[in-house]
Amino acid sequence: MNLRVPLCKGRVSISCGDVGHVGTIWNSEIDLISSTPMEGLERHIRSWFASEKAAEIEHVISALSSGECSLLDIVKALGEYLTSEEDTLRTKGVQFLSLVIEGYPKEKLNRQAVHVLATFYCTKLEDTETITPALRGLSHLVKCPALASSDVPDLLSAMFTHVKMRALVQTTRFFVFNTIDSLLKSHSDDLKAMGDQFVAGYAALASGEKDPRNLTVAFAIARVILTEFDISKHVEDYFDITFCYFPITFRPPPNDPYGISADDLKSSLLPCLSATPAFGRLGVPLFLEKLTAGSPVTKRDTLRAMSLCLPVYGPSVAREFGPKLWSALKLEIFQPVDPATDKASLDTLQVFVRVLQSNPIVTDEGQSNDMDDLVRTVCVDCLEAIGEPEKPQAKAGMKILCSFLTIAQDLSSYAVAQAADKLVTIFHDPMEVSNRPSVITLLTDLLNSLAPPEDPPTPDKPVVTESGSTPLLQDLLAPSKDAVLGLLIVGLKAPTTRVPSLHGLAALIRIPSAVTKDELGYIVLEVSEFVGKEPDEAEDVTSDVLSLLSSIAILAPQHLASQVLPPLFLALPDRAPLRDAHSQRTEYWRALSSLSQLCAHPELFETFVIRLTTKLDLLRSPLPTTLANPPPADIPDAKEMEPAAAYAHAILTALANTLSAKVSKSRPDADVPKYINTLLPHLFRLCLEAAVANDERVFADIRLLRVVARIIRLVIEASPTASQNKFFSGLDSAYLGGQVKSITGGEFAFLSEEFKPMDAGASTRQRNTVLLYAAAHVPMKRDVSLDAIRLSRRLADLITWCSSDNCTPSQREAASHVLASLVNKRADDIPEFLDYLLDNYWSNVVYNRTISVGDRRNAVALWASITRALLVRSHPSAMVLTDKLFILIDDGDDVGWEAAHALGMLATRDEVLTKRNHAILKILYAQKYLDAVLPRILEAAQAVTGSRREAAYLVALASVLNAVPKALYLSQMPKLMPLLIRGLGLEDPALRVDIINILTNTVDAASDEKSSLTTYASALVLVMLKNSMVAEMPDSRVRIAALKYLALLPGVIRYDILHPYKVQVLKDLGKVLDDPRRAVRKEAVDARTKWYRYTG
Amino acid sequence: MNEIFNANPTIYTKSKRSLRKSPFETGQSLWVDDIEQQDWSDASNVEPIDQDEVFDLIRSIADPEHPNSLEELRVVSAEQIDIGNNLITVEFTPTVPHCGMSTLIGLSIRVRLMRCLPPRFKVDIRVKPGSHQSELAVNKQLNDKERVAAALENPALLETLEKCLATAGSQE
Amino acid sequence: MDVDPQFNLQLVVSLPGHEERAWQVAWNPAKPLLASCSADKTVRLYSYQRSGDDQATSPSFSHISTISTAHTKTVRSIAWAPSGKTFATGSFDSNVGIYEKKEELDDENGLDESEEWECVTMLEGHETECKSVGYSATGTLLASCSRDKTVWIWEVHPDADFECMGVLMEHSQDVKCVAWHPTEEILASASYDDTIKFYIDDPSEDWYCLSTLTGHEATVWSLAWSPDGNYLASASDDLSIRIWKRVDQYNWKFVHQLRGHERSIYSVSWNIGKGTSSKNMGWLASTGGDGKINVWEISQPSEQATKDTLCSKLIASISSAHDVSDVNSVQWCPRSGFEDLLATAGDDGSVKVWRVVPASS
């Protein structure tokens, strides 16, 4: 655009600095502009002066952009103000101009205009009235692309001469920093050209700044100058305007207006401190001072800064202050104030040593390895500390050395060798025997730092190699390894050093290829003597021994097989100890649990299974099979079944534990599936024979069946579809077709036909075996082939089976598992079954008031588990079945209460329908369900009639809410609170527990819903106290829940709200401390302690 | 309290499992994991307060001068607790005979038990005979209710106490 | 221990109210008032009266005021001046407070209408907890003692002005209790150092310790002079009560021992009681950490021969007087006609009043 200027010299010339210069412009082109825009302009200006409305500015800007008027018009129009005698008018005049510039597109200003304005503004810097708006103008003007390099020096020198920062307010100073910042971005070469004038000028300008908003810019600027400019003559100045802020202690004011945190400042200051090596000699002493004097926070800031700066400052500086640095850091690490500072110091030390080692100075040529002298001193000091292993400093010293291992080959090999030798020597020093435990602990620290951090080794990334092609770290140990191993073995002998040594060995074998297979064997030999030992001594080493051995088992199973396992197997008697032989029982259990922990490895597990199943066969019947030789006296007679059953139970439990360890690994062991063909048939045979036999049988005991069931679950879970197909066909022909051969592996001591667990008249024993049947179905894969046609029939039969009078709770539970699992996985194959449910079963049983309430309760439970199986896969029928439950509640039916609980049960997770068990689970089913039922329940529950129906709805509400994630109802807490509190008055322990759980879950998240919590806080305190008294509430689950809740309140409610209750709470809880139940007392203690500490 | 009375105490490992033995371990049951369906209404089986329970209350109190619990330092142990009829006697063993912290430790035990035991229990606290050079003085002090009461109204002391007690009850 | 069944301790009233442990009770010697002090830093006042003048009936008690003292810590001890117009409090905050009733301006409805008590002076001097305070028989002297091992004796001047007459640092440990002779200006003190000491004012010199009694094997918690002033009873942590006889002017001698408590004995009180026998020396009540209250009848042996001995008979006893709590203080009502009343204060924060009644009734 052109700068069009009217013929009215006087004013404008005054307003701009250089008359002659401006004059030339006029002469360049003369044309008069129509006076109308000019008038408009003046009108806008006048009304702005009156109102300061932004609108006015915008008008002018748009006029300017559209070319209706020119900048000079504005200057002209402003003329009188710009020169007015009245301060405020002058200020406003410049202000107006600056606002226009601010709003006006920068690229539209040409060189000339920028120049004129710049010069103009510079003159305005001298006038205290106009300096602020002038600086504002400048800060925007310098953003113009058209700003000429030639203008920069004048502009800046004007600033440096006239701007007295201390006299200006924050916002104004902000313009200054902004201006410089923009110039650094756009004209850094011009600034460089200015040389010292700029570097010095800025330093002067910036010094003494205090406002965080300005400082963030200032730090950015300093960073650039320090890195790109030659500050050699002004190091101290820049040191002053940066380091004087260190450490940042700024704390933002409450409801921080400009959102600058101390961390923002720290992170923008740090780059300045580490910007140039030139700071080294000045900076380090300051750091040292802060480090020794400061608070923990200061210490940490300083350490962080040093870690950043030292590499920049370089080795020579590091070395110059080396001794001071080391002794300061040493202090922090040897007598740490807190873990965080300790860690930070260690990091800094590591950096420090890296720096030194990056350019080591080795005076003593005698040294084999080139380690920097200072670094050597550091190591020597640490080794000295290790020389007194019982002192805390020893641990610190070792920690330091370990932190060096990654720095440099020479350093690390030196550190490891020296440390190891030192410890070995001390260990063998007769005067130091008392310190052996500490020695071993230190050694263990060293070994751990040599071992890979993460989980113990696995076969596929083998750690033991006969000869070592291996990464760096473990080689470090090679020279001292034998001595170390020897030391640890010796350590095993004495009780005081046993546990430490075990930990040491555990660390040692984690170091890749540190020990050979033979050495492993040696370790096993030495350790095995502690296996299964009476843990009577003060120290119980069993668990440490076992964990060491089981990690060796992974590396070298054969050693365990040959040395450790045999004695353990021998410890298992063939016959169960007598009822009163308690010690023998503890012995066999100790052996069993050791075995089960050690035998996870496939090789070992196979032996384990064989040995244990053999024992089970022996226990099958307590009497010797041949009557030819009568039973020895010590054998319990047939009536004394229990000890044998208990022994078998223990054996099965050991098996189950190992199996579950194997399958719940991140990568489950591959050998588990094969046991579907060996172990399972064997167990089925034992159990089914016992069920059919008419004499007493150990395996008829339902407690055994439960463990067997657990084993079946685990094996099936791991088995592929193919083998499951075979298995389930066998299973079905056994349970439904009376053909047991296949499931028992071809052997069965009785006539197959005698096994008819599903028959109406089946004995309890036979019916109990349905536990096994269910256990198999729970983890069954979806694609296992089942006879789809007969499926509906089967399920219906199962339901009938459950409704038989002699059906026990555990049988019913088992059946419901089968139902749930099959209905969920095969919903599409069973339309007939669903019809059957809704017609016959509903009308004949569930809703049939002529049959006993007990039977109907069971029916409702069964109904619920089937409904749930459909619900979790969002099957359309689910809601239909759910509605029926509402019918039961609405009728105020005897089973309404049951139905209400069932509504909650529908939303609860269980162990049967899980991904792991291949159930079909639709995401968000719980939410969908809640959206469907909650409004209904709420509405009904809010009717405060006190009727049975309403009470039942409270039950439903509680059990549903308790089952779903709190996020789903948190927002409704204000509405729910009164209902829940009302529910706490109802005589239903399960309900109260549900409610208290809900309150507990929402108590912390309640912070945003605090209002409702606070409103009811006092009511809650009282009702919870009531519920925690055994006299008031016989059910200890409720008491426990109530106490847990009471313990939470002090953490979430302001003291002033609850302090009136403190005395009473403490008094009442004092009574609860005498509760008959230990678990309750424990909670009472906790709650009471919390309330003691509860103060304003 | 700046003087460290025992710079490097022996640290013992905590009894790993909770002390409470299962019915199998105690020989009450033949079955390794007896999942007896316990009824929640407590008319039946009352579990009286016993040694182990009292020990559980004090084992994890922090030592005033070490980052360890009284159990780890073997200052207290279940065996050193005696429960009579509404009378509990707790004996503790200072780490060193000249330990100036003994009264503080004893006090922390007393306060913990004051807060956590039913008021019906009278509590006597003593240092293990022969384990402290001024045994009698310490005992006399710890069992003078007036002195204890006054101590608890001394803010500085109370703060130190609360520090020791902060860890109490935290298992592992 | 043979309990003569001739008397029972009958609970007259239980007065709960203190939020924390109640340390001591004090009967006003002149008016029907009972005061108690507590760790809750308050003093509670109760008035009592008999319906009619029938000695047989027990008086009825009513709470008339709760005074929040100026103390910043537990109020451990409280004592009335003989006039009954003033009482002193000793606190763990190491100060001694003096309280008087606010002056009533309008004499229409006499003085006793208002129960507004105010702290008129705070005596500072002790370095640590003050544990006991007591007025001399004439009310001209006030004594206080503290964990700082000292006993202070103050002279009472008009307008609640006090002058320290002496600071006696004779004990080697805390001084637990001070007790003035019922008639003479002799002060006795009991201590954590297991001893008892006596002090008098040497007209020429200052107060000094004239005698020390040793014999107790543990802290001596409490002292009580016999009504005639010839005997002093001391209660101790060694579970015994010893009675010392004044054999000549400044000489005391151990003459009798009472045992009947299983835990520390915190308090004894001795008054004329309602004994009948001619040799009767009054009734002594004791209580302590075992929550038991014992009442003994003390009497002189019939034969002159054994003149340096005493006879004691446990005539009434009650256990769990404050449920499971320790009982910290027992005191006989000093006013005539009420000699069979005693009050106790317990850790449960309650004050109880008991009456010794013939077993028959």
From TrEMBL, chain A:
Pfam families: MMS19_C, MMS19_N. SUPFAM superfamilies: ARM repeat. This is MMS19 nucleotide excision repair protein. Belongs to the MET18/MMS19 family. Keywords: DNA damage, DNA repair, Nucleus, Repeat. It is found in: Nucleus. The keyword Transcription regulation does not apply. Residues 592-1050 form the MMS19 C-terminal domain. Gene3D superfamilies: Leucine-rich Repeat Variant (1.25.10.10). It comes from Pisolithus tinctorius Marx 270.
Automatic annotation (TrEMBL), chain B:
Transmembrane segments: none annotated. Keywords: Chromosome partition. It holds the Pfam family FeS_assembly_P. One of its GO terms (biological process) is protein maturation. One of its GO terms (cellular component) is iron-sulfur cluster assembly complex. Gene3D superfamilies: 6.10.250.1280, Fe-S cluster assembly (FSCA). InterPro entries: FSCA_dom_sf, MIP18, MIP18-like. Residues 52-122 form the MIP18 family-like domain. Belongs to the MIP18 family. This is MIP18 family-like domain-containing protein. It comes from Pisolithus tinctorius Marx 270.
TrEMBL record, chain C:
Gene3D superfamilies: YVTN repeat-like/Quinoprotein amine dehydrogenase. GO terms for biological process: iron-sulfur cluster assembly. WD repeats lie at residues 15-56, 68-100, 123-156, 168-199, 213-245, 258-306, 320-361. SUPFAM superfamilies: WD40 repeat-like (SSF50978). This is Probable cytosolic iron-sulfur protein assembly protein 1. It comes from Pisolithus tinctorius Marx 270. Keywords: Repeat, WD repeat. PROSITE patterns: WD_REPEATS_1, WD_REPEATS_2, WD_REPEATS_REGION. Signal peptide: none annotated. GO terms for cellular component: cytosolic [4Fe-4S] assembly targeting complex. The keyword Nucleotide-binding does not apply. Belongs to the WD repeat CIA1 family. CDD domains: WD40 (cd00200). InterPro entries: CIAO1/Cia1 (IPR028608), WD40/YVTN_repeat-like_dom_sf (IPR015943), WD40_PAC1 (IPR020472), WD40_repeat_CS (IPR019775), WD40_repeat_dom_sf (IPR036322), WD40_rpt (IPR001680).
